[in-house]
Amino acid sequence: MLHRAGGLFDGYHRIARVSPAVLTFLPVTWTSYLMLGGQQISAIGGGIGLAATVALSYFAASFARSRGRAIEPQLISQLGARPTTILLRNRDPQIDATTKQRYHLALAESTRCLLPTADEEASNPEKADELYASAVTALSEARRGDDHKLILEELKSYGFRRNLLGLKPIALFVSLGLAIGIGGWWYFLGFADWHRPLLSIAFDIVYAIGFASVVTMSFVQEASFDYARALLRSLDRRTDTA
Fold this sequence. Notes:
single chain; mainly alpha; about 0% strand
């Protein structure tokens, strides 16, 4: 995959790195609000909580990236190769033969990489995959920048999902930990107003169930193929603007 190095406040950083970190620690925000009382923390406490959440999220953004990158070997292992390599294989049916031939010709011309024929791929699949990977690396480097907005949008989506999956264990630990902690507090010490802790526990549990169900490896694989297709489609035009 193409990893785009960006500034702290650029679009890719906000969507692919900061947003997963914010979602990971989101239960802390609503749990604090419910347990401390909305009116009591609406001004000073709310401002402090928001500032702390933002600071924690930006700090966690770099961790989100590292956790997300750790997911990629698992993704490639399950698929057998990178999605771009899979789509470029002559034996893979996901792209029709005519379009694939056009992609091969354009890719070879634009990257100056010699791509294998169908017979060469069949006789030495591993070598063919190496050639495809090399060509795609050159292509992805050439497709950086604002002239290729559709590619960047798909890359943001992939980075967001990948990093979110990398943070999944932490998100589940935070949400379930809060639910268990508040439940234990309620059981042993009790609360004068039982509505708020009950609502907080319910939110935390529903969040954990939803996160566990939605954020899966297939969730990431779908975005990875969308990015791969967008990257290959750019071979049909000079720019990829939205």
